[in-house]
UniProtKB/TrEMBL annotation:
Coiled-coil blocks: none
Biological processes annotated in GO: lipid metabolic process
Pfam families tied to this protein: FA_desaturase
Keyword field: Membrane, Transmembrane, Transmembrane helix
Domain Fatty acid desaturase as annotated: residue spans: 79-327
InterPro entries membership: FA_desaturase_dom (IPR005804)
Name under which the protein is recorded: Fatty acid desaturase domain-containing protein
Residue intervals passing through the bilayer: 53-74, 80-100, 227-244
Domain of life per record: Bacteria
Amino acid sequence: MQFSREAYPAKVTTATRGYSVFVQTAAFWHTAPHRQHTRDIGIRPQFKSSRAARWHSAALGYTLLSYLLGWAGLLAGNAWLFLPAAVLLGHSLVIAAYMIHECAHNTVFKQNRHNAALGTALSWLCGACYGRYEDIRYKHFRHHVDNDDVVWFDYEAFFRSHPRVYAVTRGLEWCYVPAHDYLMHALMMFSAFIIPQRRDQRGRNITVLALRLTALAALLWWQPLAFAGYVLAYTLMIIVLRFMDGIQHDYPYHLRLFSDEVSEHKGDAEWEQLHTFSNVISWRYEWPNWLVLNFGYHNAHHAKPTTPWFELPTLHRTLFGHDPDTVVRLRPQLQMYHRYRGYRIFHDAPGLSPKEGRDFLQAAQRAELTGGNAASFLTAF
Ligand SMILES: [Zn+2]
Ligand SMILES: [Zn+2]
C-alpha cells in the first residue's frame, strides 16, 4: 500500500529550535518502551521546514495554552468563567484533534516516529487514546488511498436492530445533542472488548479506562461544575469535528476495515476529487478557517495529503481557482446542520433525493443535503 504520495512541500529546509518540552516528552514516552528505539531518544524532533516550525508550533502552543487555561477556568469554580472556559477547553480539543490528523499525514516533523509520538500524546488530550494511534492513522490512510469510507462498525444495521436506541438517539439529535457520536465515542472507549480484531489491546484498553475514569470520577466528586464543563467542552469538540466531516464526501461506508476487499475506486484520483467537497468557514478571509486548521479545504487535502494545514488555502486556489463555487460556504452548512439534524443517521429527510458528485456539491450549496454524523477520524472503526 502506497501511503505517502509526494513530498509537499518538497523543500525541507532547516531544523528548528523552539519546539516544546511537550513534544520531547511525547517522543520519549513513545519510544522509551521499545528497546530498538532507545538510541533515538536523544534525537530531537525536527520540524519539516521553518514554516512548519512556525505554524505547527503556533497551533501546538495554542492547544496547550488553551487547554491549561480552559481547565484553570473550570477549576476556579467561578460561574462567570464556566462558559468561556468550557468553550476554550473545547477548542483546544478541536485543534488537538486536527493536529492528530496532521501527525497522521506526517506533516509536522521530519521523522515519522516523532509525528507518531506527538499524535499519540495528543490522542490523550482529546480522549482518543483507548485504542492505538496507529489504528487511527491506518483507518485514515485507508480513507485516502482506497477512496472509501472503510469501517468495521455498521451503525445503520445497529440502529435498525435497536429501534429504541435509535428513537432516543434521534430525539437527542433533534435537541442538538450529538448522541450518535456519543455512541461512537462510547464504542471507542471499549473498542478492544467490542472489536474482535483488537482483542490484543485489552490490557491497554483497561489501563486507559482505569486512568481516565478514575480521574473523571474524582473530578465529578470534588468539582462537579468542572466535570460538567469538561462534558460540554468534549461535546463541543464532537460537534465541530462532525460538522466539518459531515459533507466532505458522498461516499457510503463499506465494512472493509479488516478485509482484503478492494474498494472500487481505489487510486482513482479523478473520482476522488469529484466525490470530495470543501466546506469552508470563510471564503473571503483566511483566519476564520484557522479555527479548524483549514480542515474545510478537503479537496486540496485529498489532492496532496502531505500538505500541511497552513498551506491548504493557497493550494486550493492554485488547483481549483478563485471561484467560490468550488466550495460550500458556511451559511448553507449551518442551515443543513440545523434543518436535517434528525435525519443524518439514515439520510432519510423527506423531499431530499440522494445526490452524487457535482450534483452533491450543488445540493450542498443550496442546503439540500442531510450530511452525515459519524465519519470522524478519531473513531477508528
Ligand atoms: Zn476525506
Ligand atoms: Zn487526511
